[in-house]
Task: inverse folding
């Protein structure tokens, strides 16, 4: 049995010291690790300067810390640092691609493909792009276990009109792990690019971006034990170089005159304005923490938590679990409905007992429509989750049933 949750490293979450809290909502936002908090305090207390602009020691130290974080983040996922771009969050990173790449490359007659299980962040920007560019928006369906219909993807690709396939690595609403390297290969074989939303995957499992080979891969810091306010876009360098910038302003330029603006090199070209220095440094420290735990260990632990939850939840009468049946094919979350009880009531009663879960459509309304539900209740697991947390969840759901009987 995995013991990762008992290690001092995995218990370093000050916010979880609060008595009675069973935190099962890391898919929404993870707790921030002490190392990340310390790294940000260290920056603010000892190295507070702006990055890339000034030569005095405070600013030089800040630049070193910030660029060091970028280097470690990029190396951890096996991608070039200069093609690893800091954004505000995953949503901004996808919008960056949809605006900067999309407005330059997509027009009437072209098709953008997404899937029915996408988070709205990987759905709405592409929908907006298609509406503006006069392109076709196609949504690949999922089966009853919420697995992607790859034949439908192939059929869409066979039209020869697809410019971009945008899918999630792990579904935040059903937990499905998508075969992203395979999807990227299919897209490339048809002459399309691929944009993978790795928001739920990066904190949970080993990710090697060279192996996946996507043109864009996106994730967010606050779900990876880091701070809010920072996301990451990894782009294929030659694609990023050929794209126009997203936001204009300071830092992203090489030179500016009335006649002409020349853009900076990567990554500065896509990082206009004063950057999220503390948050970038904090995310670097969160990544150090995950690297030290080892992503194989993280995955093994969370898969075990998920398998235990799937097993125990089956005992509850009237429960319907969304997504793949076995933990090996899903990320570390379980979303469910309880016959005759609204998910918000479930979450409220659970919350009153200290069990923190999320109820709602999880920003995945097309998927909710597919399964004819307005909402689900979702429990998600993390490096600090234990079997006792799962037991508390199950006990609290039994209590919900008793209240509604
Ligand atoms: C799969 C997925 N993609 C994208 C996002 C958006 O992340 P952010 O709000 O940090 O931009 C989320 C957040 O819930 C998510 O779960």
Result:
């Amino acid at each position: 049995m995995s013991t990762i949750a008992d290690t001092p490293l995995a218990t370093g979450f000050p916010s979880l010291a609060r008595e009675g809290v069973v935190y099962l909502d890391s898919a929404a936002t993870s707790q921030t690790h002490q190392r990340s908090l310390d790294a940000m305090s260290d920056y603010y207390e000892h190295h507070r300067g702006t990055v890339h602009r000034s030569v005095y020691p405070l600013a030089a130290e800040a630049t070193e810390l910030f660029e060091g974080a970028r280097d470690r983040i990029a190396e951890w996922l096996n991608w070039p640092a200069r093609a690893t771009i800091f954004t505000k969050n995953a949503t901004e990173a996808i919008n960056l691609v949809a605006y900067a790449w999309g407005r330059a490359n997509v027009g009437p007659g072209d098709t953008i493909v997404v899937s029915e299980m996408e988070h709205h962040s990987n759905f709405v920007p592409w929908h907006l792009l298609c509406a503006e560019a006069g392109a076709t928006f196609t949504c690949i369906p999922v089966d009853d276990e919420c697995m992607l219909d790859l034949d439908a993807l192939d059929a869409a690709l066979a039209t020869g009109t697809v410019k971009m396939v945008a899918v999630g690595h792990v579904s935040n609403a059903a937990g499905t792990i998508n075969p992203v390297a395979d999807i990227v290969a299919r897209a490339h074989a048809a002459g399309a690019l691929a944009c993978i939303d790795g928001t739920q995957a990066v904190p949970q499992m080993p990710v090697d971006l060279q192996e996946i080979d996507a043109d864009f891969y996106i994730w967010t810091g606050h779900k990876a034990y880091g701070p809010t306010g920072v996301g990451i876009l990894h782009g294929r360098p030659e694609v990023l170089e050929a794209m126009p910038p997203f936001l204009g302003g300071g830092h992203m330029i090489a030179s500016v005159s009335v006649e002409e603006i020349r853009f900076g090199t990567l990554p500065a070209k896509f990082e206009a304005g004063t950057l999220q220095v503390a948050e970038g440094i904090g995310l670097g420290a969160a990544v150090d923490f995950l690297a030290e735990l080892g992503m194989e260990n993280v995955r093994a632990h969370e898969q075990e938590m998920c398998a235990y939850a799937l097993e125990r939840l089956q005992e509850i009468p009237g429960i319907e679990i969304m997504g793949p049946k076995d933990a090996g094919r899903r990320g570390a979350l379980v979303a469910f409905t309880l016959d005759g009880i609204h998910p918000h009531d479930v979450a409220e009663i659970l919350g009153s007992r200290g069990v923190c879960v999320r109820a709602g459509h999880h920003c995945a309304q097309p998927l909710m429509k597919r399964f004819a539900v307005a909402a689900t209740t979702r429990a998600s697991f993390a490096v600090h989750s234990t079997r006792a947390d799962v037991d508390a969840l199950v006990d609290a759901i039994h209590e919900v049933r008793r209240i509604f009987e």
Remarks:
- Residues 89-91, 119, 121-122, 168, 172, 197, 199-200, 220, 222, 231, 363 surround pyridoxal-5'-phosphate (CB under 6 Å).
- The domain at 37-291 is CATH 3.40.640.10 (Aspartate Aminotransferase; domain 2).
